[in-house]
Amino acid sequence: MPDTSPFANPSSELWSLLGWSPDVGQLRQFIDLQQLLQDWNSRVNLTRLVQGEDFWITQVLDSLWPLLPELMTPDTPRRCIDVGTGGGFPGLAIAIALPGAEVTLVDSVGRKTAAVAAMAKSLGFGDRVLVRTERVERTGQDPGCRGTFDLAMARAVGAAPVVAEYLVPLLRSSGEGLLYRGRWNDTDDMELQSALKLLKARSLRLQRMELPSDRGARTLIRIGPETATPRTYPRITGMPSKMPLGAQDDDNRS
User: Fold this and answer.
1) Model confidence over 169-219: pLDDT tens digits?
2) Over the range 101-122, which residues count as b (16 or more CB within 10 Å of their CB) and which as e?
3) Could you give the 3-state DSSP secondary structure of residue 35?
4) 3-state helix, strand, coil in the chain (%, to 5)
5) Whole-number Cα distances in Å, 181 to 119, 127, 153, 154, 225
6) pLDDT, tens digit, for every residue of 4-28?
7) Mind listing the domains of the chain with CATH numbers?
8) CA separation for the pair 170, 177 (Å, rounded)
9) What is the pTM of this model?
């Protein structure tokens, strides 16, 4: 049966919810991206979210809704990094929506980064999109990346304290980290605040959205550095997820 939902395609309802709409060229890129993702997904298991609402709500809308302030100034030069990009989201969607941005996509799985790099090339991004195959702990200690990004983001990567340790070292002094989360409660926030204290960072603001078609609640937490991130962070590969900073801080106080 054909999907008759207004969100199965890039409809006016979709862009109205977002509060922004692509120009003709950007819309063509989004449509091309869906086709590329479907093609590559048949060869490499990138994501199951490639058809209809799965793509337009859960990939495109969910990638872009937290960036409305940036969408209002799309040509502003920005350095962005998407940590744990997987099948290319939110990074590729952001590269389409923010033509002034340079976007770095990081993932440790080579077959995924090869597919994402090929999609970026097919979309005509050229040198504006860079794909790195490595663990983000290494990225965060690389002098060419550490402290250089205006926006650092991660979606569906790990617990908030873990993601904060990945993102904060990548930010320049005025940069912002974007933590894509689902539902959010006081316990979640307490754990994040413990981690941010150690990272010499702070919460800036919290945004919420209920995705259409019962796709669930979304929360976006923006964080930023207060001073330079201690050189200790991010810790060695695997340590942030094995011993999240909030839990570590609790152990030290007990």
Assistant:
1) 999 999 999 999 999 999 999 999 999 999 999 999 999 999 999 999 999
2) bbbbbbbbbeebbebbbebbee
3) helix
4) 45, 20, 35
5) 26, 30, 11, 9, 20
6) 678 989 989 999 999 999 999 999 9
7) 12-253 (3.40.50.150)
8) 9
9) 0.93
